[in-house]
Amino acid sequence: MNEPLVDAVIAIHDPGRPIARAVRSLTESGLPVGEGGVRITVVCHNLSAQPITQALGEDLTAQVRLVEHPDGIRSPAGPFNAGIAAATGRFVSIMGSDDYLEPGALRAWCDEAGDAADAVIAPQAHANGAKVRTPPVRPFRRGDRDALKDRLFYRTAPLGLIRREAVERLGLTLTEGLASGEDQGFSARLWVEGRGIRYAARAPRYIVGADAEARVSMTYRPMHQDLAFVDGLLDDPWFAGLPGRTRSALAVKIARVHLFSAVLVRIDGGVWDDDDHAYLAELVERMRALAPGFERSLSIADVRVLDALVDRAARVEQLASLSRARRRFGRPSTLLTRHPATLLSVEAPLRFIAASALL
């Protein structure tokens, strides 16, 4: 029996999600459904398959493999891991139930992968057409990508194609039991250790559905729960064994994408407290110890926020003011680094912003 070329895995926990749209996009992805093409696996997370078959309808149900995964945990890691474990194709591809692919996407991504690439990073866009500008790769580079030079850590969701042999070789799994960030370790290891990573810049895109954006929860969890994935990454012996430049690049990404936004979201939401401050102070100190000098590539405004976070006496008003100041892009403090030697480094604001704009 011939195996599929691509095992596409969709995780769903709510039959009200637009699952039919997601599945239909896979049937129009340029590969036939079945042997030698794409096998579509829908993992029903903490619900039975019956309401999903109703949502799909008879025609689409006939084209999917339904798997029930009742783990009782509110995290997509479990169902995605189950779907990946059930894969036998050359590649695996994961998708959220709110999302969909542009026509011909899987075929184009497979062409990009060829016979050698361990992964193909899909270009992304929002349903309203806005481009997702991650990762901010080198704009004129073709061929294999480099984790540091192409800033691959900014793409944490491993969307696109992953060679199944690489999943097994690298021992890749999404981290179960986390409130968020379950894909951080998976993607970081893949970008660093993968044998050939491609970015399919001109291929049809992975579309982030507006349904997902509209359903973002405003329930605030304790900071140490939201950022538990950072603790897990810093505790991992794999992280400690990375070259210093790689640890620094990961630390810069964590600060930019996760720490700074967490501060402002909580302050604006009126839920910032001393426990949050104490936790982030310790986290920044750990990052500085494990990735010495990582902040040298951050803007002056960014480093002011880090310094205020490690200052237990800093008041919430000061943190709010500094956090907003770092978002006033275009001002010298947001474009320049404190150290002239890092002004034009790969992670420094000038090159980072330029690469993002050219993506």
TrEMBL record:
Keyword Transferase: yes
InterPro entries: Glyco_trans_2-like, Nucleotide-diphossugar_trans
Top-rank lineage group of the source organism: Bacteria
Keywords assigned: Transferase
Stored CDD domains: Glyco_tranf_GTA_type (cd00761)
Molecular function (Gene Ontology), one example: transferase activity
One Pfam family here: Glycos_transf_2
Sequence ranges assigned to domain Glycosyltransferase 2-like in this UniProt record: 18-170
The protein's name in its UniProt record: Glycosyltransferase family 2 protein
Origin organism lineage: Bacteria, Bacillati, Actinomycetota, Actinomycetes, Micrococcales
